[in-house]
C-alpha cells in the first residue's frame, strides 16, 4: 500500500503563516510534484554525508533535474562528532563558491546531524534562506527533522549553538530506512518510545505490542510509528514553538543523555542510545519521587530491553554526571530542571529535585557513587 | 544640557511586542536605572574590545555592581578583520565556561564590530539570549546598533553569515564619542549623511550647514545628528524588519562599499569610508541614468569632501569590482540590485542597471578600465 500520509505543523498567526507539511510514505524521493514548487529560481543546494550520498543523492538530483532544477551537493563526513563549527563553515564556503542567493533553498538529505547542521546553515546564511528536510534515518524522521530546532555542538556542550528555524517541507521516505544500520534503527526507536511515555499511553501500549514488527522493518508498522510520532511532535511544537513551556517535555531523558554524549565524545554513543539510558534514569527518579510505580518503571525497562537499547549510562562518578548536567540549556540559576513522568503517557517539567534522590538514580543507572 | 532623548523602534504585532528604546544622551553609562530592569537574574556578560575596555568597561561594571548585577568581560581584539568565526567561537567558549544561561543578557560595549558579533552570539547562543547594545562609536550609535542586523564576515564575503536579532535596549552615550579617533568620527558621519540622502532633504541641508560643528564634536549638534539618524532608521526598520523591501534603501553605497572592504582586506578601509566612496559611485550612476542632476552630485561630493571622506574607491579593474559586487546579498538570479537616488532625500531599489553605465561609474570613481 503506497499511500502518502501528511501531518501538518501548524505555525499560523495573524501576521504570518509558517505552517508546513510532513509527508510520510514510500518512494517520496522520486515525487517531483512535492518538491518542485519550492524552487522558483530553479536551483538547489543539497547537504548530505558520505554514507547517504552513494545511496540516495543521485535519485534526488535526478528527480530535481527532471523538473528543471539544477542542484549541487555538499558531502560531509558522517557522525555526531562532525556536527561542529568546522563543517558549518565548510557549508558556507561551498554556498558562497556556488554563488547561492537568498532564494536558493538548502536541502538536508540525511540523519539528524545533517538536518541540524543544514537547518542551522539555512538559518544564518545571508541571514536566512529556505530549508527543506529529507530525513533518511528513523530518528530524523520522527524527531529532529520536525519542529525547527537546529544547531551545532561546541567542545564544551551539545547543541549549545543554534537557532529555531522551521523547514518549508519535510519528506519522510520510509524506503530510506531499508538501508539503515540496525543500531541506528534501534536508536530511532528510543525517540519513538519517548512520545508514548510523555504524551500517549495507548501509543506506548501499541509500541509494546509491535516492537518486533518495527525491528523487522515492516512498512505498515513503521509508517504508523512515524506518523504518530510526528503528530505528537507537531501538536507540541504548534503550542510552544520556542520552548517556553511544554515543548521542554520532548527532552525527556535528554539532560542525562547529553551528559553521556558529551562525556564519551560525540558519536561514541548514538543520540538515541543516550536518550534511552537517560529516560531510564528519569523513570527511576520519577519512581523515587513517588510519581510513578516500580511496575511502570519495569514496563518501560522491558520495552527498551526488547528494542535492544541501553538501560543505563556508562561508568563515571556521580560528580562528573552532575557537572555535565549543569551544562544543560534548561538550567536556570544553576538549578537543573528535569522532565519526569507522572504516569506512562503523562510528563511534567520539575524544578528543585532533591540532590540525594538524583544521586541515587544516577548510581542505580550506572554511575559510580 | 544633559537631557536624555528616546527613540522607539516599533516592532509590535498582535502576537508579540519586541519594541525597544534607544536612549541618547550624556553620561548614560552611569545610569543604573536604565539598565537594571534587564537583569532579573543578576548576571551579565559584557563583550568589548581592547580599545574600549580601558576607557569604559570599569564604569559600566561599577554601574551594574551598584545594582547588584555581577558581570564579567570578554575582551576581543579591535578591528573589522576580527569580526569572524574565530572570535565568535571565543565568545561562546567564555559564555560556556562562565555557565551563562538562557536568562543571562549579553551586552555589546563598543563599535559596530563588537555590536554585530555580540548580537549574533546572543542570537544563536542556546538558540537565543537577551541582548543589549551600548555603542561607543558614532557609526554604531547611528546605524549598526539599531535594527537587529547582526553577523560576521566570511573570508569570501562581508556579513554573509548572520541573523536578524533585535536588542532589548540601546544606550547611545554621546560622552563616549570624546575618545573616538578622528578617522572613526568621519566614518560615522558617512552613515549619518546617508540618512539625509535616502530619506530627508532637510536633514541633508542641516548636515551641510553643521558639518564643522559635528567635526568639532559639539554635543548639541552630535545629539541632533544621532537622534535624527536613529529616527529615520527606526521608521524604516519598523516598516520592514527583514528587508523584504524598503529596508534595502539603508544599503545606499554598500554594494560597492562591501566590494572595497572585501578587496582591500577587512579593516584597511573603515566601513564608513567604503560607504562614502560607494555612495559617490551610486550618485554618479544615478546621474548617468538621469535620475539626479550633476549639480546634486556636486552637492553630495562637497559634503563628503567637507567631512574628510573618500570620494572614490581604490584602483582595481572594473572586472574585479564587478566580481566582488556579485557577492552582495541583494543579488537575485545573478542580477546586482542597486540603491539609486531620485533626488537628494529620495532613493529607490533598482534592478537591471545597464552594465555600460555601471562600468562608466566605476571608472569615474577610481576603477581601472
UniProtKB/TrEMBL annotation, chains A, B:
UniProt-listed GO biological process terms: amino acid biosynthetic process; aromatic amino acid family biosynthetic process; chorismate biosynthetic process
InterPro entries according to UniProt: Dehydroquinate_synthase (IPR050071), DHQ_synth_AroB (IPR016037), DHQ_synth_fam (IPR030963), DHQS/DOIS_N (IPR030960), DHQS_C (IPR056179)
Pfam families referenced in this protein's UniProt entry, alphabetically: DHQ_synthase, DHQS_C
Keywords in alphabetical order: Amino-acid biosynthesis, Aromatic amino acid biosynthesis, Cobalt, Cytoplasm, Lyase, Metal-binding, NAD, Nucleotide-binding, Zinc
Catalyzed reactions: 7-phospho-2-dehydro-3-deoxy-D-arabino-heptonate = 3-dehydroquinate + phosphate
Ranges of residues in domain 3-dehydroquinate synthase N-terminal: 74-186
Enzyme class: lyase
One GO cellular component, as annotated: cytoplasm
Descriptive protein name: 3-dehydroquinate synthase
Cofactor(s) the record lists: Co(2+); Zn(2+); NAD(+)
Binding locations of Zn(2+): 191, 254, 271
Amino acid at each position: 500500500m503506497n499511500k502518502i500520509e501528511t501531518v501538518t505543523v501548524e505555525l499560523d498567526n495573524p501576521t504570518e503563516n509558517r505552517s508546513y507539511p510532513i509527508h510520510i510514505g514510500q518512494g517520496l524521493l522520486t515525487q517531483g510534484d512535492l518538491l518542485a514548487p519550492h524552487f522558483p529560481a530553479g536551483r538547489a543546494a543539497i547537504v548530505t554525508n558520505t554514507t547517504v550520498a552513494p545511496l540516495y543523492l543521485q535519485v534526488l538530483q535526478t528527480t530535481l533535474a527532471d523538473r528543471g532544477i539544477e542542484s549541487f551537493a555538499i558531502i560531509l563526513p558522517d557522525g555526531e562528532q562532525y556536527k561542529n563549527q568546522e563543517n558549518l563553515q565548510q557549508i558556507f564556503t561551498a554556498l558562497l563558491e556556488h554563488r547561492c542567493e537568498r532564494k536558493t533553498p538548502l536541502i538536508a538529505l540525511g540523519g539528524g546531524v545533517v538536518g541540524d547542521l543544514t537547518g542551522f546553515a539555512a538559518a544564518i546564511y545571508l541571514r536566512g534562506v529556505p530549508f527543506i528536510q529529507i530525513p533518511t534515518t528513523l530518528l530524523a524522521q520522527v524527531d529532529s527533522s520536525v519542529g525547527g530546532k537546529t544547531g551545532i555542538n561546541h567542545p564544551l556542550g551539545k547543541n549549545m549553538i543554534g537557532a529555531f528555524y522551521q523547514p518549508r517541507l519535510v519528506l519522510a521516505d520510509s524506503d530510506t530506512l531499508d538501508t539503515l544500520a540496525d543500531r541506528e534503527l534501534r536508536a530511532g526507536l528510543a525517540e519513538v518510545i519517548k512520545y508514548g511515555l510523555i504524551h500517549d499511553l495507548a501509543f506506548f501500549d501499541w509500541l509494546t505490542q509491535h516492537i518486533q514488527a518495527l525491528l523487522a522493518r515492516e512498512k505498515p508498522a513503521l509508517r504508523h510509528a512515524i506518523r504518530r510520532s510526528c503528530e505528537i511532535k507537531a501538536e507540541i511544537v504548534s503550542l510552544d514553538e520556542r520552548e517556553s513551556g511544554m515543548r521542554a517535555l520532548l527532552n525527556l531523558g535528554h539532560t542525562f543523555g547529553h551528559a553521556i554524549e558529551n562525556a564519551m565524545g560525540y558519536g561514541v554513543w548514538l543520540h538515541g542510545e543516550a536518550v534511552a539510558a537517560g529516560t531510564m534514569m528519569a523513570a527511576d527518579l520519577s519512581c523515587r519521587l513517588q510519581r510513578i510505580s516500580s511496575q511502570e518503571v519495569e514496563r518501560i525497562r522491558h520495552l527498551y530491553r526488547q528494542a535492544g537499547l541501553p538501560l543505563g549510562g556508562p561508568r563515571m562518578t556521580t560528580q562528573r554526571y552532575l557537572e555535565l548536567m549543569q551544562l544543560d540549556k534548561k538550567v536556570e540559576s544553576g538549578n537543573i530542571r528535569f522532565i519526569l513522568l507522572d504516569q506512562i503517557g503523562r510528563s511534567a517539567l520539575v524544578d528543585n529535585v532533591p540532590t540525594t534522590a538524583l544521586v541515587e538514580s544516577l548510581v542505580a543507572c550506572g554511575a559510580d557513587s
